[in-house]
Amino acid sequence: MECFTYKEPYIEDGKKILEINVLPEKYCNFDCIFCPIGRSPHKIDTQKPFPNLDLSLNELDEMIKAHNPDLVFINSKGEALVNDSIEDIIRFIKSKNIKVRLLTNGYILGKKEYMDISNICDEVIGEIKVTSEKDFQKLQRPIESYTLKEHIENMNLFNKQYKGTFILEITIIKGYNDDDESIEKLKEIIQTISPDKLLVVRIDDEIFQKKLGVSDERFEYISNELLTCSNDYKNR
Ligand code: SF4
């Protein structure tokens, strides 16, 4: 049985995107309380093998032939980099002259082996969801010894040497990073990581939206503040 799963291809900025999950079940180094995939039974940050790579690559080949995408977006059930075939998967897609976008929470991007693999991708998305160590531990429940400081530093290290497009996705969470002090901290994080592109999103999962979703008005205000800060910084 193949272990990859796919979303229906869609158009984004005129380009056809094929979204793929390369994990058979959730494997992540975090266990976020608002994770749309559910709890993390396997909290890991080292690579592990998964069965049926050949079958899965054959199926991917068929999907590429059928849909002819401009970009394959690796958006997995957790941290895609822990699949020990991730480099082969990325190189397989690139061999078809198709661009690759990789979503990671960004924590392990500072490690040489993951940095090298991510460098093959045309676009990498890293994530920030909190602004304090306390909230990092409480909301994201990472592997023991992980810190928010390291999380930011790892993305900074990665982006300093990355030649592709680094996208920072910031999630605004009611009661945690939607106050004025947090907005200032988020601006500092943006300046430290210095992404090529900033995405500001909010919790949209139905189950968590009620408790952790910010209002349209507040979200618009925060988005403008952060996007302006990001553009100002880039234009310097
Ligand atoms: S980093 Fe993403 S996949 Fe991992 S637990 Fe958090 S929300 Fe889920």
The CATH architecture can be given as Alpha-Beta Barrel
Task: Sum up the overall morphology in one term.
Answer: globular
Ends: how far apart?
Answer: 52 Å
**Helical segment count:** 8
Order of helices and strands: EEEEEHEHEHEHHEHEHH
Biggest β-sheet: count, sense, barrel? 8 strands, mixed
- Please identify which CATH superfamily we are dealing with: Aldolase class I
Number of strands: 10
Strand portion, in percent? 15-25%
Short description:
It comes from Acetoanaerobium pronyense. With 236 residues, this protein is α/β, with parallel strands linked by helices.
Features:
binds iron/sulfur cluster; TIM Barrel; eight-stranded mixed sheet; about 40% helix; alpha/beta; globular; two-stranded parallel ribbon; 10 strands; 8 helices; about 240 residues
What does this structure look like?
Keywords: 4Fe-4S, Iron, Iron-sulfur, Metal-binding, S-adenosyl-L-methionine. This protein is an alpha/beta fold. It has helices spanning 53-67, 86-94, 112-119, 133-140, 148-161, 180-193, 206-212, 216-234, and strands spanning 5-6, 10-12, 15-21, 27-28, 42-43, 71-74, 99-103, 123-128, 165-172, 197-202. β9 (165-172), α6 (180-193) and β10 (197-202) form a beta-alpha-beta unit. α6 (180-193) runs parallel beside α8 (216-234). The longest helix is centred in the C-terminal third of the chain and has 19 residues, at 216-234. The termini are far apart. Bound molecules: iron/sulfur cluster.
